[in-house]
Amino acid sequence: MEQAIIQVYTGPGKGKTTAATGLIIRALGQGCKVLLVRFLKPEQPQSSELLILEKLAGLDIITAGLGGIDARKQPERLQQNVSQTLSQVRPMIIGGFYDLVVLDEFNPVLHKGYLPLEQGLELLRQRPAHTELVLTGRNAPAEVLELAELVTVMEAQRHPFADGLAARAGIEY
Ligand code: ATP
Ligand code: MG
Asked: 3-state DSSP call for residue 132?
């Protein structure tokens, strides 16, 4: 990217990860090299888009491997998992190989303190100038929003979950 920026998709409404996924497809279509890092996500059950994304050349996917309701009861393990994942991906990001890097659920990682905020901010500041960086997830810290050139807050006007509609494969995951 000639002019790369930091984008944040946050807020309680649906569409943050799907927006980032759409952006990945668009960038790949343009021949960009893309890295998707999935924080706070277990290996299984997989979200359905991965079945397609895994087949696409030009895209590398790293899944942290720990997440979900049960994992939240063990914050120390989550902290360790997040920190390991960041050690793995930091050199990949700083190395400047990618045009687009999506850090899915990075906002909650910082909000919940699974990673010290300063370490997260440091990564944002170290972003190569040609790498577009996209952060998703609820509760993006104000310090993150300050560093971002693009901020979209998804507002939850209505969601069928409140009326008892369970998460559906192919739509919610
Ligand atoms: P999506 O992955 O559908 O784009 P998201 O990334 O905006 O959603 P997350 O905060 O990551 O939302 O939510 C995780 C799960 O909860 C997803 O399955 C998502 O579809 C669903 N979800 C999103 N918003 C809401 C909401 N307001 N109420 C209930 N469930 C939601
Ligand atoms: Mg999401």
From this structure: strand
Q: 145 lies in a domain?
A: yes
* CA distance linking residue 17 with residue 72, whole number of Å: 20
Q: How many domains does the chain have?
A: 1
Residue 36: CATH number of its domain: 3.40.50.300
The reply to whether ligand 1 has any atom less than 6 angstroms from the CB of 48 is no
Residue 172: inside a domain: no
Residue 118: Cβ within 10 Å count: 9
**Cβ neighbours for 18, distance < 8 A, ≥ 6 positions apart:** none
**Ligand 1 closest atom vs CA 19:** 4
**Cα 5 to Cα 131: distance, rounded to the nearest angstrom:** 7
User: Each residue of 53-106: pLDDT tens digit?
Assistant: 999 999 999 999 999 888 999 999 999 999 999 999 999 999 999 999 999 999
End-to-end CA separation in angstroms for the chain: 30
Q: What does the DSSP 8-state code read for residue 157?
A: S
* 15 is a domain residue: yes
Residue 146 lies in a domain: yes
Range of the domain at 83: 6-163
Task: Say if ligand 1 is within 6 A of residue 22 CB.
Answer: no
